[in-house]
């Protein structure tokens, strides 16, 4: 008996459901357009048979249908507005709005402190020891050397700290933190001009030309990525940018750069693979002048094993660009994880072109933040930007205070 009742019930339910579907299908064709509040548009526009939409697409569609039925809504013309809405659906390849650059280092601070704890916190712990004997001072020295601060700056810092700790007498943790903060800042330098020089120059014809930035460095350091990120920094600061893909040595570099450019609406000037980098650089500046762009960023190729070739090539790129007018900035990209090797690279590049600023990449992946001190000493030019990740906006203007605070906490 129960079974019969159950069977009848199931039959009723199934019939009802089928009927409902049919009715709802028909209703779609007959009813007037929905009031604005009806949440039908997005779900119904989803192509019904998209396999990848899977469960997620079906649920909203069913929801929409339910809503239509519940609210007693139409569908005949409901489909019309839905289709009209379709043009909204294809998302235009929108030009991204990069994050503002102010305070980026503070935003990325967590990454910095994670990777640099052994330096800052290690030093603080050692300085807080009850007895600061020779052994402890040696450990402090080792900590600095391990972080790639370099021999001479390490010695200077340890001497200064020894002297000041002696004068201090009792050492509260706060005293020590402030003292270390001051000394690290003195070592890094707070009065250097760390802005990337992108102001317009006066061209050889007497007219204004875009600011020209050459980005140099060994392939693999993150040079192309940095050029792309820098374009975003400049766009975020309201400047228009033209990119020059003069790294014709690495096959994918031009495509990579162009993709970065497209994301922020910057045109990329490129040439054939293996083509003459200097002529691409020349054309890029020419394009920048024609577009009255604010800045032209030129990505160059770097390969140390053919030092002479590199010298010739880079020197030529710069000379050829200078036929238009001055190059405002030559940024050397160094990978912070390469330690002493990075310093060797810095030396070689400095022989080739006048480096005016350094970009240290991959600081998120190393505890060797001391390289900032070492490389500034080596080249006598400031670190201007730091790379703190692979994200598009993970390039930050270098601010010594924010950096030191991330190291030792504030
Ligand atoms: P190029 O040969 O010097 O032009 O090198 P690329 O620009 O292609 O970069 C090499 C790799 O380094 C890529 O995988 C980048 O995503 C990565 N990279 C660049 N900068 C950073 C950074 O600041 N942090 C991290 N973690 N990776 C980076």
From TrEMBL:
**Protein source organism:** Streptomyces piniterrae
User: Any idea of its EC number?
Assistant: 3.6.5.4
Task: List localization entries.
Answer: Cell membrane; Cytoplasm
A single Gene Ontology CC term: plasma membrane
Q: What is this protein called?
A: Signal recognition particle receptor FtsY
Subunit structure, as described in the record = Part of the signal recognition particle protein translocation system, which is composed of SRP and FtsY.
Please give the residue ranges the record annotates as the region Disordered: 25-82
Q: Could you tell me the membrane topology recorded for this protein?
A: Peripheral membrane protein
What's its job? Answer: Involved in targeting and insertion of nascent membrane proteins into the cytoplasmic membrane. Acts as a receptor for the complex formed by the signal recognition particle (SRP) and the ribosome-nascent chain (RNC).
List the lineage, top down: Bacteria, Bacillati, Actinomycetota, Actinomycetes, Kitasatosporales
Q: Which GO terms describe its biological process?
A: SRP-dependent cotranslational protein targeting to membrane
């Amino acid at each position: 008996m129960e079974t019969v009742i159950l069977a009848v019930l199931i039959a009723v339910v199934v019939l009802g459901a089928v009927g409902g579907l049919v009715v709802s299908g028909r209703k779609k064709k007959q009813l007037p357009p929905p009031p604005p509040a009806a949440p039908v548009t997005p779900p119904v526009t989803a192509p019904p048979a998209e396999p990848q939409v899977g469960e997620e697409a079906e649920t909203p569609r069913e929801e929409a249908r339910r809503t239509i039925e519940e609210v007693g809504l139409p569908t005949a013309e409901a489909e019309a507005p839905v289709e009209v809405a379709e043009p909204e659906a294809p998302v235009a390849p929108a030009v991204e709005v990069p994050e503002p650059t102010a305070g980026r280092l503070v935003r990325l601070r967590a990454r910095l402190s994670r990777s640099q704890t052994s330096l800052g916190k290690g030093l603080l712990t050692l300085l807080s020891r009850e007895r600061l004997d020779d052994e402890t001072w040696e450990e402090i020295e080792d900590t600095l050397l391990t972080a790639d601060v370099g021999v001479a700056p390490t010695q200077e810092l340890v001497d200064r700290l020894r002297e000041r700790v002696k004068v201090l007498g009792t050492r509260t943790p706060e005293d020590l933190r402030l003292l270390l903060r001051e000394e690290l800042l003195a070592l890094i330098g707070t009065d250097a001009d760390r802005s990337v020089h992108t102001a317009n120059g006066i061209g050889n014809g007497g007219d204004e030309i875009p600011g020209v930035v050459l980005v140099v460095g060994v392939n693999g350091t993150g040079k192309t990525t940095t050029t792309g990120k820098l374009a975003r920094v400049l766009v975020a600061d309201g400047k228009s940018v033209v990119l020059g893909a003069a790294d014709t040595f690495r096959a994918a570099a031009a495509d990579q750069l162009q993709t970065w450019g497209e994301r922020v609406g910057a045109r990329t000037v490129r040439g054939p693979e293996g083509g003459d980098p200097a002529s691409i650089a020349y054309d890029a500046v020419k394009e920048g002048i024609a577009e009255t762009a604010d800045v032209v960023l030129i990505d160059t190729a770097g390969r140390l094993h053919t030092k002479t070739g590199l010298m010739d090539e880079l020197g030529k790129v710069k000379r050829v660009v200078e036929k238009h007018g001055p190059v405002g900035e030559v940024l050397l990209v160094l990978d912070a994880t390469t330690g002493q090797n990075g310093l060797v690279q810095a030396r070689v590049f400095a022989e080739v072109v006048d480096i005016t600023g350094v970009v240290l990449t991959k600081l998120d992946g190393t505890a060797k933040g001391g390289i900032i001190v070492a490389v500034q000493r080596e080249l006598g030019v400031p670190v201007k930007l730091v790379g703190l990740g692979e994200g598009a906006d993970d390039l930050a203007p270098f601010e010594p205070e924010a950096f030191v605070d991330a190291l030792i906490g504030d």
